[in-house]
TrEMBL record:
The lineage of its organism: Eukaryota, Metazoa, Chordata, Craniata, Vertebrata. It comes from Geotrypetes seraphini (Gaboon caecilian). InterPro entries: ADH-like_N, ER, GroES-like_sf, NAD(P)-bd_dom_sf, Quin_OxRdtase/zeta-crystal_CS, RTN4IP1, YIM1/Zinc_Alcohol_DH_Fams. SUPFAM superfamilies: GroES-like, NAD(P)-binding Rossmann-fold domains. Belongs to the zinc-containing alcohol dehydrogenase family. Quinone oxidoreductase subfamily. One of its GO terms (molecular function) is zinc ion binding. It catalyses: a 3-demethylubiquinone + NADPH + 2 H(+) = a 3-demethylubiquinol + NADP(+); a 3-demethylubiquinone + NADH + 2 H(+) = a 3-demethylubiquinol + NAD(+); 3-demethylubiquinone-10 + NADPH + 2 H(+) = 3-demethylubiquinol-10 + NADP(+); 3-demethylubiquinone-10 + NADH + 2 H(+) = 3-demethylubiquinol-10 + NAD(+). It comes from the Eukaryota. This is NAD(P)H oxidoreductase RTN4IP1, mitochondrial. Keywords: Membrane, Mitochondrion, Mitochondrion outer membrane, NADP, Neurogenesis, Nucleotide-binding, Oxidoreductase, Transit peptide, Ubiquinone biosynthesis. The keyword Transit peptide applies. Pfam families: ADH_N (PF08240), ADH_zinc_N_2 (PF13602). One of its GO terms (cellular component) is mitochondrial matrix.
Length: 402
């Protein structure tokens, strides 16, 4: 199976061992030459781009974006059939994370160091493999795949995209491309929080009491389904108009944060083994009191200060400030017998393989709020920016016919 490739490849660096396309390569990473890489290397494609950071008006449809090129032997080119938006796309459009993400961008994929424009947004995709790098053995042209592209790469609101084979998985057979595109980024985010950060899985989750704040969003709807598939007891916090949705996904108890003070409602319930916070802000000021003390209970937030700090203070000072904040909060709550953790999205084709199985077994299903045509990407951004979405906003790059 594919193994995750950690770190950047250095063309002139020391000998390393990496995994590419499921095969181990020893020695220096080999760069695939652009000459002969793709028969369409001199062509262009349509994509939605931004040329500067700002409000929705910076989105621009460009018919002449450079066709993606395979640079590394473990990369694939995918024809995008559907993509979807995440709140991260809204914040990235406005410049969130630029200081850190620009430093992380592969210099082979940008023309000028520090200049990421024109930048394509979008993290999710479902599509078809068009071309494989020299060492990709697990996939072949024509395979239907899905993936979540990390934010330091060009995004998926385009006709074609290049991705590492380690980020890609075969699409669930039970889903259309439009349905599949709703899942990768949010599912991998929930997967990272529950498995990597909390250490939960199907073998140790039964009977655990979990509280999900912001349960009707993309990550929340997936987290409910994962936890219920593993036997947990789930309490979901959302608005009343989303209560039927989260109950249909398996939530055992639903709290409407609009009808009555959330704190007062939670006081009537037993304490929790895990709180998953998709909201952030002042939530942690009161939510932590509902964790079981001295039991290994964890409070996991997906709202992290790292990118905000590096944007505001620069890379070095921002990372230092983030480290201080994390250490301070961790120790403060550990003294009270509670574990405070941050969780981050992690691209992984290997994890998507496992998620594919859960989807095809009927244990996870996509929750789609609305589907937009490729021509209507700005309208999709406007809809997501208004907030209170129930599920995902999907972009049909290619219209599917049933």
């Amino acid at each position: 199976m594919l193994a995750t490739l950690g770190g950047k490849l250095s063309l002139g660096g020391p000998r390393v061992t990496v995994f590419c396309g499921g095969h181990r390569l020893k020695g220096r990473p080999r760069l695939r030459r652009e000459l002969g890489t793709s028969p369409r290397r001199s062509t262009v494609m349509p994509a939605w781009v931004i040329d500067r950071y700002g409000p929705n008006q910076v989105l621009r449809f460009n018919k002449n974006v450079m066709f993606p090129i395979i640079h590394y032997p473990n990369e694939v080119i995918i024809k995008v059939h559907a993509a979807s938006l995440n709140p991260l796309d809204i914040t990235m459009r406005s410049g969130y994370g630029a200081a850190s993400l620009n430093m992380s961008r592969d210099p082979l994929h940008i023309r000028t160091k520090g200049n990421e424009f024109p930048l394509v947004l979008g993290r999710d995709l479902s599509g078809v493999i068009m071309e494989c790098g020299l060492d990709v053995k697990y996939f072949k042209p024509g395979d239907e795949v899905w993936a979540a592209i990390p934010p330091w790469k060009q995004g998926t609101l385009s006709e074609f995209v290049v991705a590492s084979g380690n980020e890609v998985s075969l699409k669930p057979k039970s889903l259309s491309h439009t349905e599949a595109a709703a899942l990768p980024f949010v599912t991998l985010t929930a997967w990272s929080a529950l498995i990597n950060t909390c250490g939960l899985q199907k073998d140790n989750c039964a009977g655990k009491r979990v509280l999900i704040l912001g349960a009707a969003g993309g990550v929340g709807t997936v987290a409910i389904q994962l936890l219920k598939a593993w036997g947990a007891h789930v309490t979901a916090v959302c608005s009343q108009d989303s209560s039927a949705l989260v109950r249909s996904l398996g939530a055992d108890h639903v709290i409407d944060y609009k009808s009555e003070n959330t704190e007062e409602q939670l006081k009537k319930l037993e304490l929790f083994d895990l709180i998953l916070d998709n909201v952030g802000g002042s939530t942690e000021n009161w939510a932590l009191k509902f964790l079981k003390p001295w039991s290994g209970a964890k409070y996991v937030t997906l709202i992290t200060p790292l990118l905000l700090n590096t944007d505001r203070l620069g890379l070095a000072d921002g990372m230092l400030q983030t480290g201080i904040t994390m250490a301070t909060k961790t120790m403060k709550h550990l003294c009270k017998g509670k574990h405070y953790r941050w969780s981050f999205f992690a691209p992984s084709g290997l994890s998507l393989d496992e998620i594919t199985q859960l989807v095809d077994e009927g244990k996870i299903r996509p929750v789609i709020d609305e589907v937009f045509a490729f021509a209507d990407v700005p309208k999709a951004f406007e809809k997501l920016e208004r907030g209170h979405s129930r599920g995902k906003t999907v972009i049909a790059v290619i219209q599917e016919h049933k």
